[in-house]
Write a structure and sequence with these properties.
The complex is a heterodimer of chains A (434) and B (483). Chain A has 434 residues and is mainly alpha-helical. Chain A has 2 domains: 317 residues, Up-down Bundle (Formate dehydrogenase/DMSO reductase fold), CATH 1.20.1630; 76 residues, Orthogonal Bundle (Cytochrome Bc1 Complex, Chain D, domain 2). Chain A is 74% helix and 0% strand. Chain A contains 15 helices and no strands. Chain B has 2 domains: 320 residues; 118 residues, no CATH class. Helix content of chain B is 70%, strand content 1%. Chain B has a two-stranded antiparallel ribbon. In chain B, strand 1 and strand 2 form a beta hairpin. In chain B, helix 3 packs antiparallel against helix 4, helix 6 crosses helix 9 and helix 9 packs antiparallel against helix 10. The chains are: A mainly alpha (434), B mainly alpha (483). At the A-B interface, helix 2, helix 3, helix 4 and helix 11 of A face helix 3, helix 4, helix 13, helix 16 and helix 17 of B.
Chain lengths: 434, 483
């Protein structure tokens, strides 16, 4: 398979490439953490609200969780701007191409996110108004969550498509790009990370000293709620490893490399201690849920950073050949542009040196756009004007200074009174003698 | 030329950006830059007068601002990026290379702005009854107002740059681009307009929120009318300043003065809208200051509508006078650089357009080759059947007479001389002829014109074919054959 080789934008990068790459990895990780917390928050709020139909305390909890979503969703958006900016800078030929190929859905991101945010606000700010119509309230929450879950799929499709230029000619719209190998696997991996990170956040958040005061459960024990989230976190961790393996085995070979594989191994391995500690906290009676919490977070953070670097490494591998071909083509093209510009300059000079009357020059500058030598274009042709005004140069000049609209099917000519009489005389002379 | 061509044939590509961007600007000016300082002012009056009503009103107004700016406001801002990168990637990509650090700083300010508005809004109720914390909270509001103005100040530099690149063409530095000649007048104009719009939108909301407290309403409206009126005077001065900077400057670039008639009609529309609008808004502000509480709400609402129209029209004129360029003197609206022209005119654009499906034009493929040329050179601004459609343009010119390819070709070749807002045609003679045959064919039949998001891109053997300037390294088989 051959890939289309476009040219890059012929302006220098604003900073050294390596520096921009580091910035991209860091900015993306910050963004993705908030995205996980936003989506997971919305998901857990929905789950708690549904449980709240039977156990009212869970409805209180759902409301509290939505307050986190408000903050996380704003952070997710602003933190997304930086990686978008950098990816636009570093991978312009690939990223713009893949965006255009799924253009309709890519553009839909904006209204979909806006709608999801507005629904989240309705869900949260008008909580009390829905007290007697929980079905509607849950319906809104479900729609909001569904949108939150769908939008990452668009992003994933795009960042996957940009990696494989040789697949671009086969792609016809969003769905066909979505069905490329690896998108669904990546999405599942993403979803388990969402559940993992947001349930861990909720374990911490419900463990704060002031939380019991804030939420004021009447029946449910706070510890049970926290164990509920903890169990999710543990399950999601296992799922995360499974889906991670699935992604790994389905990754197209272009981007594979030993460095990349090693990074993945290290990333996976650094999450193992967390699995051990979490298992202990869940099963052993002499352990508390909050034991080793900071260590668990550190272990996951370590895995996250390594995976972030690996993800970037795969992209660099997958696009290495494409990038170098683009570089060469861009350089060739710029050289050709230079040659053509020099040729054109010489040709223009030669044209200038040809003896031409003042009338011809003025005609070309002022009239030629609308008056062709023989064909009617915007206005009548020179031929026709010549026939109309034969032997009447002053009549032609007078018309030019104060034209009107003669022909019903063409537009009125603007006045040329700003030209000097000498110029107008030269022009009319040129037309009538042409 | 280097990117698959996304195209929406119904509302048109320009309209997509315009709708998103104008919505964004209205929200930014009226509800962020202009309204946030007012919220801080109302909060301050509440603290000073120890009057809870001021505080409660400020919080209610902030809630609306918070909801709108953090959803539609923020997302339409990101939407400008999305739509620009689909519609004219060459232009936005170039701007990003030049303004990367400007945008990066803008992003940092944006992060601060969002963090501040969340802190300001979400801690309002918890600090309400603690005098010391309340004062700190008020300071947050001041910072928020300042940061929201700074985000605008940075973006205005980029907008100004697109109209007039100043010394950038020779210096190519960020600062040269930032402090171009349009910068300060435009910033002045936008700042004052935002303050007036902020004032008027808060007046309207206050009017709605104080239906049962008429005495309090008068007190608030008096303050807000003073604010609006004072900024309106500043706006009048800034408008004159800005008005004197643009036309002279842009008109100087236009070789043939008669061709400015289209511009003049836009410009005079703006002028009358400005004069009439400012006079009306000024009259309402004055009446409201003299007799607060006795001006009918409809007049306030109408003032706000007039201001929004003024802003919308201003953006249209600003975009219009930039033409034929998208980045002044560097890149035309069709996404092609001025420097690319000699090469494209010599070889033809299809030779160099990465995603074109036809390279050689023959007698048999003229219509489909013409369609490709249209896609590459016209489709950034024109649709076939939708808004600003090429069919409509041709119909205006030739009506029901038979559309003739050679007459169209004669026009297209020279049109940039008469229609100065049009870029010159970038291709060679054969392509001009093919384009004209395609355009003439539209009189009888226009097949649906879809972009790459529906049609995809042509097969790669076409794409990687040898071109005028040497073989293109192919990703697999041709690797060894380069010369």
């Amino acid at each position: 398979m051959a890939a289309p080789i476009p040219r890059d934008i012929p302006l220098p990068l604003p900073a050294p490439e390596g520096f921009l790459e580091i910035l991209l990895v860091v900015a993306f990780l910050v963004h993705i953490v908030f995205v996980h917390l936003m989506i997971g928050g919305s998901l857990f709020s929905l789950v708690c609200q549904i449980r709240g139909l039977k156990v009212p305390d869970y409805e209180k909890l759902a409301y509290r969780i939505m307050q986190l979503v408000t903050v996380n969703k704003s952070m997710a958006v602003v933190m997304g701007v930086a990686p978008l900016l950098i990816i636009n800078t570093l991978y312009a030929p690939q990223f713009y191409a893949s965006s255009a190929l799924i253009g309709d859905m890519w553009m839909a991101v904006i209204p979909l996110v806006t709608l999801a945010f507005l629904l989240a606000y309705v869900h949260k700010f008008w909580w009390r108004h829905f007290i007697n119509i929980p079905e509607l309230h849950i319906g809104i929450a479900a729609l909001e969550t569904a949108l939150f879950l769908f939008i990452p799929l668009i992003f994933m499709t795009n960042v996957n498509l940009m990696l494989f230029p040789e697949a671009w000619p086969q792609v016809k719209g969003f769905v066909s790009a979505l069905l490329l190998p690896n998108v669904i696997q990546r999405y599942l991996h993403f979803l388990s990370a969402t559940v993992l990170s947001s349930s861990l956040l909720l374990v911490w958040w419900t463990g704060r000293k002031s939380f019991a005061q804030e939420v004021q459960f009447s029946k449910v024990r706070l510890l049970d709620v926290r164990r509920f989230f903890y169990a999710f976190a543990f399950g999601a961790t296992l799922l995360q490893m499974l889906t991670g393996l699935l992604v790994f085995v389905s990754l197209p070979a272009q981007g594979m490399g030993w460095g990349f594989t090693l990074l993945l191994m290290l990333g996976g391995a650094s999450a193992l201690p967390a699995v051990y500690w979490m298992w202990q906290n869940l099963t052993r009676t002499d352990h508390l849920l909050d034991d080793n919490f900071k260590r668990i977070i550190a272990s996951f953070a370590c895995a996250l950073v390594l995976m972030g670097i690996a993800r970037h490494d795969y992209r660099e591998n997958a696009l290495a050949d494409h990038q170098s071909a683009i570089k060469e083509k861009t350089a060739n093209y710029q050289a050709a542009v230079k040659v053509a510009a020099e040729e054109a300059q010489l040709a223009a000079k030669a044209l200038e040196e040809q003896p031409r009357g003042a009338g011809e020059i003025a005609f070309e500058q002022n009239c030629a756009a609308c008056h062709h030598a023989t064909l009617p274009t915007v206005g009548p042709s020179m031929q026709e004007i010549k026939e109309l005004y034969a032997g009447d140069p002053s009549g032609l000049i007078a018309w030019t200074k104060a034209p009107g609209k003669k022909r019903p099917d063409s537009m009125a000519m603007p006045s040329f009174a700003h030209l000097s009489d000498a110029q107008l005389t030269a022009i009319s002379g040129y037309i009538l003698s042409h | 030329m280097d990117f698959p061509i996304f195209h929406i044939d119904f509302i048109g590509n320009r309209m997509l950006i315009a709708v998103d961007a104008i919505l964004h600007v209205i929200i930014n000016h009226a509800l962020a830059v202009g309204a946030l300082p007012i919220i801080a002012l109302l909060e301050y009056i509440g603290i000073r007068n120890k009057d809870k009503r001021w505080d409660a009103l400020a919080f209610r107004l902030l809630k609306i601002i918070f909801i709108v700016t953090t959803t539609v406001g923020a997302l339409t801002g990101v939407g400008i990026w999305f739509s620009a990168s689909l519609i004219n990637p060459a232009a936005i990509g170039s701007l990003i290379r030049v303004f990367f650090w400007g945008w990066f700083v803008e992003w940092l300010v944006f992060v601060s702005e969002v963090s501040l508005i969340m802190a300001y809004f979400l801690t309002w109720e918890s600090t309400r009854d603690k005098p010391e914390a309340k004062l700190k909270h008020w300071r947050l509001g001041l910072f928020l107002a300042a940061f929201s103005w700074i985000t605008m100040a940075i973006i205005v530099a980029i907008l100004g740059f697109m109209m007039d690149t100043g010394n950038w063409q020779t210096e190519r530095t960020l600062l040269a681009g930032l402090f171009n000649p349009m910068y300060f007048p435009q910033l002045g104009f936008r700042t004052t307009l935002a303050m007036v719009m902020g004032g008027m939108s808060m007046i309207c909301l206050t009017y709605l929120y104080t239906r049962r407290e008429l005495a309090f309403r008068s007190a608030v409206l008096e303050v807000l009318s003073k604010w609006t009126g004072a900024w309106l005077l500043a706006l009048a001065i800034a408008a004159i300043w800005y008005y004197q900077v643009i036309p002279g400057h842009m008109l100087a670039n236009i070789p043939v003065a008669v061709t400015t008639q289209e511009y003049v009609s836009w410009n005079s529309q703006l002028k009358w809208l400005l004069i009439f609008g400012l006079a009306f808004v000024g009259w309402v502000a004055w009446a409201s200051f003299k007799r607060p509480g006795q001006v009918h709400g409809a007049k306030y609402a109408l003032s706000l509508v007039v201001l929004v129209l003024m802003l919308g029209q201003f953006e249209r004129v600003r975009e219009f006078i930039r033409k034929p360029f998208i980045i002044g003197n560097y890149m035309y609206a069709n996404g092609l650089r001025v420097d690319d022209y000699p090469l494209l005119k010599r070889d033809g654009i299809l030779q160099h357009a990465t995603y074109a499906g036809i390279r050689e034009i023959t007698a048999d493929n003229q219509v489909s080759a013409g369609r490709e040329v249209f896609e590459q050179t016209c489709s950034r601004c024109h649709t076939v059947n939708g808004i600003n459609s090429i069919r409509g343009q041709l119909k205006n010119m030739y009506g029901d007479k038979r559309w003739q390819a050679d007459i169209i070709a004669a026009y297209v070749e020279n049109m940039h001389g008469a229609r100065y807002f049009m870029p010159p045609f970038p291709g060679n003679k054969t392509e001009l002829q093919a384009l004209s045959v395609y355009l003439a064919s539209l009189q009888k039949r226009a097949a649906a014109f879809n972009g790459a998001q529906i049609n995809g891109i042509p097969a790669p053997d076409f794409i990687s074919a040898a071109t005028h300037y040497g073989n293109i390294p192919d990703l697999d088989t041709h690797q060894g054959e380069q010369h």
